[in-house]
Design a protein that fits this description.
The structure holds two protein chains of two kinds. By secondary structure, chain A is an alpha+beta fold. Chain A has ten helices and 28 strands. The longest helix of chain A has 20 residues, at 82-101. Helix content of chain B is 24%, strand content 41%.
């Protein structure tokens, strides 16, 4: 079934169109993005059951972007009363006057000047699909299934002293209006997490697995199918060792590959970083940055996962950008304002955390293509190394191409076989081109995960997915 | 979703929501209104790339539903949110749906916050924050930010500044009805240097306003940031290995202390994730960590009147902190959730701390502290390594340790730092940390 449009957006569309048309008479460029969203989180653990509307994923509101004399300003608001809408013109006027009077910037700084974007005419209404709407399924049934998953894990072994189970979804609608565009989209994603906790002495350890889908409550079935196995795997953490720091052959499972694709390279090809001269990738277009086995994609429509959308928050149609083609860096991803600055074409990657925030160049669905090896062949090829799974976090360094990832499980491989020894926690570090060029095998499966959000630095969280195939590489572990 | 504004059928006040709750026989509730205005400036080098204003009004409502299960009193709850001006009919539907949902939430009963006496109100009035004049503050902080950005090979690459005024109104069914306002100036900047290698470092800041002291603090922060970045540009990769004394400074001191703060929370203890108990030496035999907790807000989002507490003294856990529910479950007085950690100074100067060999890490790619296990670690972007009489700026490599093993060796500096969320020693040292 297709996700239905927002009544709220339909109701305020006319007054907003009138406001935009009125402002267009005065300014060279006026765009407006209206959003409406409902997101809910259901969670169960030993000590709590909760159900809440999740405002982290935004709510209903509007952002205007206006240009005067080469300078842009934005105004975000969520009051749609006729009185307030009538005051918007005056408020924008004040913003520009203050900006252009020099009262804020003083003598140390000045304002950037841009040419108005040359937009192509486009119009359309787009909707993603789902099987079971969490909004119609019923709160009681949803909670019962989340509780059921919790119990499945707890029943595995009494040493699992707790388990956090979370299911969440977002239904969102967006309307983008400019002089030449009128676009509407309606999307729904769902994601989940199962996190058993085990204890040894004073130390508490956790394992987790995540689930995500461009769709609805049908995701719960996937979670139910894997719950028991996740519980069993968590017990492995009761007997872990500390690793001897060093350079090792490793196999990154898809969730760790996802961190490599996203953190190690994805952030480095966000072209607002090119504008700021903060990304080394700018100087490497057309050059080899990875092994020939590596082809990397990013795009709103590149894969049906939680980072999926039809158009971005600046009214640019989403696509499938091939960032690395068989080891060669082909191009970055770009938002509209950065494209204006660089004289490049936007790739549909201008995204906002919500209508209250600025748009930046952001990833969407980022992944390495599948290869031809089986996981068994990859393990058999290693004399001493580790299979890395359960990625916890990662941090980018686009300027200097450093990479740091935290991984919860490293399974030891000796003489082509898993020994059963487990090391945890693990910090994976390296120099990005060294890591990507060291990729010598790529598995034949492809798996993306979109349970989390991506930040720009330490804020501006947007829903993304990442992943790919399992890859064999050489990395520094500690 | 149907929404109408400023019409007789629209919800514009917290009391409109209270009236709906009462008319729907929802007797237990907590409603919070948050109005926010902000000015935002985004710079690329010294050019203002974008200028934004935000003006929003949100309501957050939690409805509670008491019921009994197997002879035990329960209190289910469900939370909703919506912007100001939402249609009454729609709010009624959302509240009914939440109230129904709350009947499936089987949590043991606990009391809501109560306004105990007038003293609280009087005290709160003294703590009402000031409201920023955006344009004036923006001018002052932009000048403070760029004052020392005048070097040829080291500069501010980009910066973002946010000037925020917020007013909150909290009302619950237990008599709490309080309003207060607050302001914040926060932001981030990236410094770049091409002295040798082309490198950058990230920095952030947060203040309550733009007083002369806060402007001065930002200026000093930028000057130090530029010097650090210059040092990173000249730093070399050294293959450091083994266990050694490390020094952490600036924000990393607070981030490491979060381990003690998190594990002292009623939620972590009640769930069994934390083994901390009041009276225990949670510093594993050490006696150098003294922490109190403070809130910049007079009331928590649940309506709890916020009072400072002593959390740790001489490495001993003195008080647990937490929200209404988990505090009640543990038989503790609810303290609310704090936003500022205050740690006492130590007895040694930073210079004394630097006797002998050490690795002083001033910038990580990402410093991680695992609250559950006590593990901490990260990749080094810039550190100063002292060996004998020589000090080398170094980059690359990692550190890793565990507060359950090295916590007792924490030594705090006499010199203090004052951040919005952390006030404490400028630096701390730990012994026998793995470097690799």
């Amino acid at each position: 079934m297709k996700v239905t449009p927002s009544n709220f957006i339909q109701e305020i569309k006319e007054p907003i169109q009138k406001l935009r048309a009125q402002l267009q008479k005065k300014y060279d460029f006026v765009s407006v993005l209206v959003t409406d969203s409902i997101a809910k989180t259901y969670s169960v653990s030993k000590s709590q059951i909760s159900m809440r509307e999740n405002t982290d994923f935004g709510s209903g509101g509007c952002v205007l972007k206006v240009e005067r004399n080469g300078q842009f300003t934005e105004f975000s608001f969520n009051d749609f009363s006729p009185e307030f809408l009538a005051s918007v013109d005056g408020r924008l006027e004040e913003q520009f006057d203050m900006l252009q009077s020099g009262k804020i910037l003083g003598s140390l700084c000045e304002a950037s000047m841009y040419k108005v974007p040359d937009e192509q005419t486009s119009q359309g209404v787009y909707s993603s699909e789902y099987e079971i709407s969490p909004l119609e399924y019923g709160e009681e049934k949803l909670l019962e299934r989340v509780k059921g998953i919790y119990q499945l894990v707890r029943d595995v072994d009494e040493r699992i002293f707790d388990c956090n189970v979370r299911f969440e979804f977002q239904k969102m609608s967006k309307l983008y209006l400019s002089d030449r565009k009128e676009l509407e989209q309606n999307l729904m994603w769902s994601s989940g997490m199962i996190q058993p906790l085990v204890q040894k002495g004073k130390e508490t350890k956790f394992y987790y697995d995540t689930f995500s889908i461009l769709g609805g409550a049908e995701l719960l079935e996937q979670m139910e199918r894997k719950a028991e196995q996740i519980g069993k795997t968590s017990l492995d953490l009761l007997n872990t060792k500390s690793i001897t720091p060093g350079l090792y052959d490793v196999i990154c499972m898809p969730e760790v590959t996802g961190i490599l694709a996203h953190e190690a390279f994805g952030h480095g090809v966000e072209m607002d970083m090119f504008v700021k001269d903060r990304a080394l990738a700018k100087d490497y277009i057309g050059r080899q940055v990875a092994s020939e086995l590596v082809t990397m994609h990013d795009g709103g429509t590149a894969y049906p996962e939680t980072g999926f959308y039809f158009f971005d928050d600046e009214g640019q149609m989403a696509g499938d950008t091939i960032v690395i083609d068989r080891g060669i860096l082909k191009q970055g991803i770009c938002d509209l304002q950065s494209a204006m600055s660089l004289g490049a074409a936007p790739t549909g990657n201008g995204r906002r955390e919500s209508f209250e925030r600025k748009a930046y160049t952001r990833m969407s669905n980022t992944f390495f293509e599948a290869g031809t090896s089986t996981l068994e062949e990859m393990i058999a090829s290693i004399s001493h190394g580790y299979l890395l799974e359960c990625a916890v976090s990662g941090m980018e360094d686009p300027k200097n191409w450093g990479i740091q990832c935290m991984v919860n499980i490293a399974r030891e491989i000796r003489d082509g076989k898993l020994t059963g020894e487990i090391y945890s926690p693990i910090v994976l570090t390296g120099y990005v081109p060294d890591v990507l060029k060291s990729i010598s095998m790529v598995s034949d499966n492809l798996q993306l995960s979109g349970s989390g959000c991506c930040g720009k630095g330490y804020k501006e969280w947007v829903k993304v997915s990442d992943g790919g195939a399992a890859v064999k590489a050489k990395v520094q572990l500690s | 979703m149907e929404r109408k504004q400023n019409t007789p059928g629209a919800v514009n006040s917290i009391y409109d929501i209270e009236n709906i709750c009462r008319s729907e026989n929802m007797d237990t509730y907590c409603i919070r209104q948050e109005k926010k205005e902000s000015l935002e400036l985004f710079f690329v080098k010294k050019k203002l790339d974008l200028h934004r204003k935000v003006m929003v009004n949100h309501f957050y409502v939690t409805v509670y539903r008491p019921f009994e299960k197997d002879g035990v009193q329960m209190l289910g709850s469900a939370s909703i949110s919506f912007p100001g001006g939402y249609c009454v009919k729609e709010v009624e539907e959302k509240l009914r749906s939440a109230y129904l949902g709350a009947s499936f939430i089987e949590n043991k009963a606990y009391p809501l916050a109560a306004l105990e006496d007038n003293e609280q109100k009087e005290e709160m009035e003294k703590r009402v924050g000031s409201i920023l004049d955006f344009n004036q503050c923006a001018h002052q902080m932009v000048q403070a930010l760029y004052l020392y950005d005048n070097q040829e090979k080291t500069w501010i690459n980009s910066a973002e500044l946010f000037f925020i005024n917020k007013s909150e109104h909290i009302l619950n069914s237990n008599g709490v009805d309080v309003e207060f306002q607050s302001s914040k100036v926060k932001g981030e900047f990236v410094t770049q240097s091409t002295e040798q290698e082309d490198v950058e470092l990230y920095h952030d800041f947060c203040y309550e306003g733009a007083s002369e002291e806060e402007q001065r603090d930002l200026t000093v922060k930028v000057r130090e940031a530029l010097e650090m970045t210059k040092a990173r540009s000249k730093a070399t990769r050294r293959n450091l290995r083994g266990k050694m004394k490390i020094i952490l400074s600036q924000q990393y001191v607070g981030e490491l202390m979060d381990y003690y703060v998190e594990n002292s929370s009623a939620k972590m203890i009640y769930a069994g994730y934390s083994q901390f108990q009041a009276g225990d030496n949670v510093q594993e035999g050490g006696s150098t960590v003294n922490i109190s907790l403070h809130s910049h807000r007079p009331y928590s989002t649940e309506g709890i009147y916020m009072k400072d507490i002593c959390m740790m003294k001489g490495g001993i856990l003195k008080n647990i902190h937490g929200d209404l529910r988990y505090s009640y479950y543990l038989g503790q007085e609810p303290t609310g959730v704090f936003d500022c950690v205050r740690m006492e100074a130590g007895e040694v100067c930073v210079e004394e701390m630097k006797q002998g060999n050490y690795l002083h890490i001033v910038s990580f790619s990402d410093f991680q502290v695992d609250t559950l296990s006590g593990f901490f670690g990260g990749e080094i972007r810039l550190a100063y390594y002292k060996e004998g009489d020589n000090i080398y700026p170094v980059t690359g490599g990692t550190i890793s340790g565990n507060l359950n093993e090295q916590g007792d060796s924490i030594c705090c500096s006499k010199e203090m730092q004052h951040q919005f969320g952390f006030e404490g020693p400028m630096a701390i040292s730990l012994e026998q940390v793995t470097v690799g």
